[in-house]
Fold this protein.
Amino acid sequence: MSSYRLPKGGLVDRKAPLSFTFDGRPLQGFAGDTLASALLANGQMLVGRSFKYHRPRGILTSGAAEPNALVTIGRGGRTEPNTRATVQELYEGLAAQSQNRWPSLDFDIGALNGLLSPFLGAGFYYKTFMWPAPLWEKFYEPFIRKAAGLGKASYDPDPDSYEKSWAHCDLLVIGAGPTGLAAALTAGRAGARVLIVDEGSLPGGSLLSDSATIDGKPAADFARDTSAELQSMPNVRVMMRTTAFGWYDGNVFGAVERVQKHVRDPARHLPVERLWRIVARHALLATGAEERPLIFGGNDRPGVMMASAMRTYLNRYAVAPGQATAIFTTDDSGYALARDLEAARVDVVAIIDSRPSAGVDYRGKARLIREAVVCRTKGRKAISAIEVHRGGRAETIAIDALAMAGGFSPIIHLACHRGGKPTWSAEKVAFLAPSGLKDLDLAGAAAATTDLAACLAEGAAQAKAIVEEFGWSCPPIVLPKVEGTEGTHASKPLWSIPGVKGKAFVDFQNDVHLKDIGLAVREGYSHVELAKRYTTNGMATDQGKLSNVNAIGLIAKARGVSPAEVGTTTFRPFYTPVSFGALTGPHHGHQFQPVRKSPLHDWAKKHGAVFVETGLWYRSSWFPRNGERSWRESVDREVVNVRQNAGLCDVSMLGKIEISGSDAAEFLNRVYCNAFLKLPVGKARYGLMLREDGMIYDDGTTSRLEENRFFMTTTTAYAAGVMNHLEFCAQALWPELNVRLASSTDQWAQMAIAGPKARAILQKIVDEDISDAAFPFLAAKEVALFGGTLHGCLFRISFSGELAYELAVPAGYGESVADALMEAGKDHGIMPYGVEALSVLRIEKGHVTHNEINGTVVPADLGFGKMVSGTKPDFIGKAMLQREGLAAPDRAQLVGVVPLDPKQSFRSGSHILAKGAAAALENDEGYVTSSAYSPHVGSTIGLALVKRGPSRHGEEVVVWNGLHGESTPARLCNPVFLDPQNERLHV
Amino acid sequence: MASLVPCPHCGQRPKEEFTIKGAALTRPAAGADASDWFDYVYLRDNPRGAYEEYWHHTSGCRRWIVLTRDTVTHEVAASRDAADRPRSEART
């Protein structure tokens, strides 16, 4: 006694059989089937176990709201848990697994939870597992997680690709049912750019399940012909398998198109899903309505189905629900189902109508029981009988399928995504979309219009009004003639049914039953948002599409108020689940963010560089040579070689900004805290940029190449930020200044040539005289190279403390210039050095980076107090820098630190404690900002920000690191470990 | 997930192209009181409704613009280049 395929009828292609498996069992379906219709056609009515009580569950719906029939499909990286069988199209070879059962779907140990159900009611884990507290993490939580649940995701990488795209239209129609098709056709014929999206595989929506005729044709044929006309219009785009999932600012809609979720082997050149952002001048929601379940005991037993779903399986998929069907209805839709079932020669045993009279005159064979209710079902893994109550008398009727028609709730989700609250209509007995919506309307069943002819008329009329508002003239609307529909008397909602026995489910997916809602109200959680969280009604993958309105009705009844007073929970995107793959699009792995490679990347690579990712950049960190076993060996060698001979380091990733205009000098004078107005042409100057609160923002050198042209360098990390900041200053703060900014970071390959032999090497390729007299420290000039064949910029600046230059050449020439310098320096012992050696060299010299410029330091904290101009009328940060707290004597300031025992070491981030002080927060004196092994000093050295640091040189302290359990006796000292008189710079 | 920002130079563009800085306050004059500077640097209104903000069309024309945005509905009532000061602030 189970569901089966009818010998004829339906929209499935019987000439195209498809093989698939369910829990390994081989089954057959047809092209055009969903997994659910194919399972039912094979008599497979039990498809899953429920979340909490592990109750046997079947297929409840035929669409996106399905709470029960969740299966896992695919293998390996294509595993997709919690797939709704009701929307998954069948394909050859589809392999589906049921979920939340062990060891098998038929025999599930977890079903014992049903016996524990008195302890598993609403809020059970707030009450039951409170003590003893330590058991929560170790025992209760793992136990609950194991017993309750949905499918399991795969840990394998997803082999498929995803895309993101934008679309633009005058009218976006969401839903290609009768209302949407009529709207799109009207607007399309008028000439507007129309986009119509629908989550299904075929246009038509409810027309595909309807037995009515339109203009003498079956409704499904009308849908097919209308969509063919739409597809022939160049101004209309029909997007099937596309779910509009959210409505956002600017009338932008999010949608996900399932490009290849219905095929076994996705084509490599296409994405499997495409995420759309659709910009619509206007949108029309023609999303239809959702039928509500009825809440009686055992309403979750396999074989119980929504009446509209049963009609879809019958008419669209030619699947009969069983041999003996009963229909429990609160509206006239139950009679349409009865008529269609009987026309297909499927026995209808009884129609149980809660109302005294119906809007239709039923003349079929089924027994009609008015003013009656189903109060419970019987059966084990499938329904076998119902108990019907009428006027205090109970009767048991043997059946094997039951349809329930609890009335329709308009699907208004998207209309509520921008904060509007639904309004309750007592007349329509439904929550309707918020009023006063802008650029969006609803039509058809989504606006509680139920009659098919009325839906067609409403869709066309609304589209006409919209496109005429935009200035198109609309041809007269010719409405098709609709025949063969049933009456449409409104449902008499039955929030609760008298005499219910056993568990009557409100929310199927979360196993929330009638008593849970009552318990929540009794315990004070009657506010709809609290009730949701206390009972979990309306959560998980279906987000209460079937359960929310019923729960609201029950709460209203328990509180003795109207549903209007209870209100709804908040509607948020997404309407249905959207895969992480679609949201991520192509932005993962190597495409997660851009990779920035210096113009000298290949040069570094051929010298064996080990690269490190810093932000987007790949920087050469060191260059191992034969025999070196650790990075330290390489770095020590590179450092020593710079101090003794010369080294070449790639500094192309420093930010570079060209600043020009007649007010360029004045502009720089305002963005730096030190003076730039009188910087001579041909000179570089170290500059400190502050934030408006007085803290240091960034540092770098800026050179005056011409009277009104400057070349600024920034740190690598803040290159983009400084550019944005300068643009803000130029555009928003001082638009009256004549200044132009251009980022030129990518235009230049820049290399540091440092070491006592730097000049001798560089002079071999630079045409101009670069002797100390002609090109002194801080000189900056455009120079000719290789006998005038190339021009670049040369700066005599030094981060290492040695005689040093930075040479910038057009990016495309970077590698050949670096090659030429290596060749020129061969006899001088030149070697490449990386950022690790660069770091050691600058720490030895006490130069700061963003390790020290940490957002809490002012210039004086780093020893730059005298740089700050006292005479400039204004610069960024000037006013707030005057605050007395920023000159307080106990500020953490820059100091050097060395271990007492050169064999001992410490790490950056370690804290400084006074000698003998306990390691406690109140004894914290500061911390080590940078540290490295210094070949020059012969031990680890560090820079630190320490309270009153500059006045404590020579003091013994303890460097403490609680994370690593280290404690190192050390001494504070001058942060300049090498050449404090700067003699090496000036040779 | 999505929304559009009107740039006075480029038209409606996706918000991902922009960087937002916050309230479009007027920088005090150099010699202003410490309390004016304190307000400018630290104090912000948090209105429900219209709010003037600096936005930077970072991945577009790279102009700073001033948006009048509703903090409840995100609706943008006005958008102008930050260099085009309102008449009240224009230098005479």
Notes: Residues 21 and 29 of chain B are 20 Å apart (CA to CA). The domain at 1-23+46-86 of chain B is CATH 3.30.2270.10 (Folate-binding fold).
